[in-house]
Structures are given as C-alpha cells and as structure tokens.
Amino acid sequence: MSLSVLCISWGTTGNLSPVLTAGRQLRRAGHRVRIMADPVMRSEVEAAGFPFIGWRRAPVGTDADPADFSDLADWFRKTLFVPAGAYAADTLDEIRRVPTDAVLSLDLLLGCALAAEAADLPHAILSPHISIRPLPGMPPAASGLTPPRTAEEHAAMAAATDAITSAMEKGRTALNATRRGLGLPPVASAFDYFDRADRVLLAISRAFDFGAATLPANYRYIGPLLDEPGWTRGGPSAWPGTSRPRILVAGSTGAQNQTELLQRIVRAVGTVDAEALVTTGPHVRPEDLAMPANVRVVTAASHEALMEEAALVVSQGGHGTVSRALLHGVPLLVMPMARDQTDNAARVGARGAGLRLAPDAPQAEIAAAMRRLLTEPQFRVAAGTLGAAVRADLDAAGLVREIEAMAAAQRPGRADSADRRWA
C-alpha cells in the first residue's frame, strides 16, 4: 500500500540532507512524500521533486537552531521547549490539510512529535547522529566521551548523563503546558516523547556507535542517510593529475564561526607533501582564506566523487562527512567545534579510523597529525573495516522497512504505547 508520509526537517542544510535522503528512499518504494522545513529550504526540496511546506508559526533560521551551545539547558529551552507549541500547530495544520498515514520528524522537533501524538498518527523520530536520549552504558550525546574503563571515566560519564538529563528536565514544565494545550496528559520525563514514538531511527551504523547495554524496543539502527545535497552540484568532482596524496578538507554547513579554524588547517596543509581541496560550506567565503600553492578552496564540491581518490579527510565532525569518508575507507582528522561533532570525533578515534584534535590545536600539531594519517596504514585499514559495515547498513534499506512496518502495525492506544519495554 502506498503511504502518504510527512517528513519534517528544521534548521540548516545539514539537517535537511538526511530527511531528503529518507524521502527519496520512501519515494522509490512507491510512497507519497512531502517535506516540511525552513522556508529557505524550498528550492532544494522542490529541486528534489517533493512538495514543500514551510513553517508559518515556528521559528526559522538561527532562531530555530541557535549557534551558541555554551548553556545546554538554555539551548534546549530555545530549541525544543519554547517553540514546541508553534511547531505542533504548523504540523497539525498540515496533517489536516492533506490526509497523512505516517510522520517522520527529526529528533529535536519535539512539537512535531506532540502533533503526531495528538493526531494519533504513526510517528518515527529520525536521529541522524547518536541517540539524544541517554542509553544504558553508553556515553551520552554532546559529551564527546568514550566508553569508560576507569573509576574516573565512569564518574565523568555519570556526570555527563546527569548534565544532559538535568538540562532536558528543566524544560518539562513548559513541555507539559504544551501537552495540556493539545489535550495530552502530562509526562514524568522530558525524554518521554522518545518512548511514545513508534520508532526511533538512529541513522548511523551500529558498528560505528558505542554499544548500549540495552536498547528500547522501539529503537532501530538504519545506517547513515548520505545523498549529497543539491547545492554541491557544479563544484569540482575530480582531482588534478598528481602523484601526491590528496586531502579533502570539509568545512561545516552550519554557522560555527569556523573561518579561523579553516585558515589554520589550510596553512598546515601547505607544509604537507599533498594536494588539498577545501570546501568551505555556505558560511565561509573562499576569498577569506589565504591559500598555499598546493591548496584549492571552493564553496562546495561533490564529496562523494572526491572521496573515491582521497587519502585523508579533515572535518569538524559532521555525521554526513564522517560517514561518507568511512564508506570510502578514508581515514579522518576530526577537529570538532559543536557538541554533536565531539561525539563523532570520539568514535572515529576509538575505532582507530582517524585522529581527533582540539579545534584550537596549533598549525604544527595539525600538520603532524596529517602526516601520521597519510603514512601509517592502520588508520586506513580501520576506516575500511568500518566502511564495509556502513555499506551493509545502506544495502539493508532499514528506513523504508521500519516505516512500512510501523504504519502496518495495529496501533495500540496511547496509554499503552507510552509503556515501552527495553529489549
């Protein structure tokens, strides 16, 4: 049966890309998909062939996705809780406008989850990164920690788990006020909306993630969603003829004040015997970077094509770039600036597929790490092993299977569906 699926994104193009990939997978399986997102995303959504719906009440741009992560509780308040009612109202308007069989929304869109619950529609939460909700035995999101081995590391993980839980719980009063406005009962935990979803789809490879002691019964790993965004078209897709190693430096698609970091990386590449291509992303102008002779700087390019011949990828740690590099068996140097990027950096390092440096690492340290990654073969071997696991996840097409199963299942009452069991 063909399903009518409402897929919902927000914030930056980095958030839109996995939603568009999900939409394409569902469309290839014969389902009817429309995309709801920030109005500035209209052209990319329509270029992909999907009907577009923009936010009318909900915040957009940096109001929706603030760049300042220094106070996590305040970031959650501004991003999840305060605008939840506006997101819910816009989503309910769209559900009423077009008959909808299922909703797929990104994990930080709390209001969309509430709208699906209020409409009693099958709902899947899409997490294109590690689980935001803390899982037993796993370092929590935004911590950048690896699995603990010592008493001190266990204490650090416990403190980080308490910190993200406390930050979320500070928004529960606002959450329950929104729930009451939608005719929904109050909840005892701010993370409750993960329990109430029919599926929580972790769009990463299980082999890349750290293993949780147990997973909630509605959680599924589906592998990364890696279609390239349309705005990369027209950029270079091939390397110049050279026998030297090729380094791809991938700037972030988010507004992270990364110009100085990219300049330091570029200067470091200038001291390495290699050819490099730098993609700055939409928030840094190529002309703002001083370029050594062995470096070319552009706004965007086809990472998919360039990684086929790259010997090294340097990245701030966005999940799409990290996953694509691993898929091609390319080792990584990760210099994270955002909280979610530290989690990816921790996994790259722990899996032996690359190295992690602080974003303020000096030029000489960056260059030394690049030389190690280009000359020591164990990094490429580990990246290739992870890449095979990523490829297997992509071939399994888990997202479509889970959405179809979710919609086909006899939907239990909401009171029962909130009482999930851990598998």
Please outline what is shown here.
This protein has helices at 13-28, 42-47, 61-64, 72-81, 84-97, 110-118, 151-169, 172-181, 192-196, 259-269, 303-307, 319-327, 339-350, 363-375, 378-396, 398-408, 414-417, and strands at residues 4-8, 32-37, 52-54, 102-106, 123-127, 199-202, 219-221, 246-250, 275-279, 295-298, 312-315, 332-334, 354-356.
Unreliable stretches covering 5 or more consecutive residues: 412-423
Strand order of the largest sheet: 3-2-1-4-5-6-7
Contiguous helical run count: 17
Total beta-strand segments: 13
Helix content: 40-55%
Main pleated-sheet profile: 7 strands, parallel
Euclidean distance between termini CA atoms = 29 Å
Mean pLDDT: 91
Spatial extent as radius of gyration: 21 Å
Label the structural class: alpha/beta
Question: Could you state the order of secondary-structure elements as H and E?
Answer: EHEHEHHHEHEHHHEEEHEEHEHEHEHHHH
| DSSP strand content | 5-15%
Shape: globular
Walk me through the structure.
The protein has 423 residues and is α/β, with parallel strands linked by helices. The protein is built from 17 helices and 13 strands. The protein is globular and about 65 Å long.
